[in-house]
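Notes on consecutive records. When two proteins share a document, each keeps its own sequence and its own token line. Never mix them. Below: protein one.
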Amino acid sequence: MEYRILGPLEAFDAERRLSLGGTKQRAVLALLLLHRNEALTRDVMVDELWGGQPPPTASKVLQNCISALRKELPGGTETLRTLGGAYELRLGPDELDRDRFERLLAEGRAALEAEDHAEASDLIRQALGLWRGSPLSEFTYEQFARDEIARLEELFVAAVEDRIEADLALGRHAELVPELESLVSRHPLRERLRGQLMLALYRSGRQAEALDTYRAARRTLAAELGIEPGRALHDLERAILAQDSALDTSPTAARGGDARPGRLAAAPLVGRDDELALLDAGLQDALAGRGRLFVVVGGPGTGKTSLGDELASRAKARGATILWGRGWHGGGAPPFWPWIQAFRDAGATLPEASTDDEAGKFRFFEAVTERVRAAAAEHPLLLVIDDLQAADTDSRLLIEFLASELPEMAVLVLALAREDTPGLDELARHATRTLRLELL
């Protein structure tokens, strides 16, 4: 299946375009796609689709839309499931064009940070090529879609800026000038675009026009916002006036190799395609700000740590920060040892623990959660707790506490445990998914 929301809503089963019904039925599908692999209660859906004043028939209309969609979607009730009083649309990795866009963009940004500009340009072009127009264009005025439309539109422009940055590093300044002039006209308050136009003009031998671009930016910002250009734009003007040689960069050769980044530059993993597909979908959710907890359970030698290493490789390639902690079998480890290790990876320390009473434990758990939230606001996180069976009880409880806050964070938590881990059933109830590994 392929679902498309980066433009008008569309759905394809291989080459067959699905009939999605009327306006309200299409809105139901769009809402479910925005929350794919999540259970939405009927009350929440009615409120999102009709706002604060739903008609008396809203629940019946919703039920009819669900039934009609099940008849059209491959898999029927397995694809669009009923869970108690809620509905859940099950999607596999990359079935939604938004997820493919965000994955390719994250990979492109990681390449850009690594100064592999040719790879970055190619990946971000692929991401932008998925767009067919304004996202969810038929739902522009619908309450449930407004925030996501605004987020995606901002992400699109930022992706264009990233691609231009890569192209400038590759020496494509002359061909970028017309595109940048058009972009600045459409987004006059974006200083990054103004700076990129100044740099492209300067490198094209058009210094006077580059300085005119700065003066135009200054006038626009003063008139519209009452502010001066930021330091980056001001410093660029000074560098152009000084004809700073640092502005005259030559194209950067593409760099790359066979080793993949990650905690251990993970070796290729064989025989775990299904598990990796599920974890990769969770990673995409986390990169998009919808955190997840996965628990992987298996005996010694089943490949739990190798699976975590592979996921870490993929996460790091997409720009995530990797935090890894491990339980200690030898005894004598301090409380929260896996968490101490994980925070140390980030150059940080845990808040001071005060767990003698339930109130102190709650305050500590809350402080740790806030530190994770703050770190994830800067860069998405993959937090791996390995050998969970050897961790102290409170370390396992802290995972459960954090899990309740994950849906609003760009964090994927991966807990790796043996079958005899105490409290495993309770932890599984907090998890998005529990994967059980057998020996291959």
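Protein two starts on the next line and is unrelated to protein one.
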Amino acid sequence: MNDMSLFEKKERTLDGPAKYNVDTYQYYNDSARQDMEAIRQLLEKWFSHYPDDEKQDLKTRFQASFDAAFYELYIYTLFTKLGFSLSIHPDIPGTLKRPDYLATKDGEFLYIEVKHMTMLSQDERSLERKKNTLLDSLDKIDASNFLLKLDEIVFKDNSQPSGKMIVRYFNQAISSYDPDIYTDLLSQRGFQAMPKIVYDDDKVKIELQLIPKSPLHRGTNSRSIGTHPIVTQIGNDSEDIITALESKATRYGALNAPYIICLNKQSISLDIIEVQEALYGSLQISWRDIPDNRDERLELSGNGFFGSKNNPKFTRVSGVYITNANTANLATTVDHAFRHNPFAQFPTYMVIDKPVQELLSIPLDYPMPSKI
């Protein structure tokens, strides 16, 4: 039996939260925080049931792309809990490509393809890395008396700003403020009337205000950043969901069994209406051109991934499973949905009607420290 573990067995001394640009696997492996220990316990438990001859490859994927590998392990564990036996990367006649899993149960078998949905483009990921590097620099600003309320960050070109120069500028500017006087002014005027500190060069503009610490917490080491700029998104992600599904829909050609695509969409919550629109189409109102009997009704337009009765799409796909799972939300905001393709060549009768927490036996206080 292969007793390989997903994480190192060692004494851990790294306290505090992760840096913004941290290697995810390395942080999970090194952190001494109690919630990280609970997460490691859960993942190690799942990993112990993964086939021995596949463990090294999965561990390598965790080290290279943590979120995508987590979802592979999540799906393996979920379908095992649903009573399926899973084979990894099964052969398919006529192609060298292999789906992630072949699942069998009660004489039924189906192919499973796993897709971790990346919401950022390559350019957006590059910008995210640049922003996180800058935030790690800003967290080095002296936070003895104040925390930083970041109001705006504007990058002016593709280069990385000088963290040392920025930290030096803000440390000098912040040192001129007395925390007691600042606290009194803040209570009288509010944040809108408080001064802004602006750093502006040819690479970046940073605008922030100060949040005074209480006397009890002054002089203590902590993260310097107290609040971040608010980021909002208008609309929904239906088109992104469709694009992600289309990238997997015809990958393996004509199969001789049901084919399921499992999609992980990282978000705070899973919008079921958004899922319905992505799969079956947006809602629309139809009516008759008869004044006395308009017969108005609300129906799906059929412009989703599955298409419509008159225009079925991707009939090789038997169903889609969508969730918003991550290592931290399994007892709280995680949700999931499985939807059948009504026009599938090979329908599946699989049903998922229990919450994630129940199916995976997640403790209510997870990821707080408790024995998994």
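For the record: The CA atoms of residues 279 and 305 lie 5 Å apart.
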